[in-house]
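Troubleshooting: if your tokenizer reports a length mismatch, compare your output against this known-good record of 107 residues.
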Amino acid sequence: MSWMHSRAALAQGHPVLQNGLHEEISAERKFGARGKLQIAGFHDDNRHVAVFGRGNDLPAGDYLQDGFSAGFAYDGGSSRSWGNAPRFREKFDGDLELTAVYSSEAL
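Known-good structure output:
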């Protein structure tokens, strides 16, 4: 379980911080002498998701404008999702290792 990084945005003229929770559980099994298969499932629950963009002359109450560039942050609301991520890892000679990852997420 871990906390997501905080990012600032504006919601109805008030500053808000993006926050959320990431939970993950996994199981692992050896494949031969050098391989491992790992299956993981996860859940993300985020509030005040910061959406970033570029532009000028935006409504001040909804967009947090970057003072040094044309970048801005917007409060995208909340987001919840579930997903899985199987991984296969094989160790070769010395420090060489190959990892293949496939990740799937549903909102």
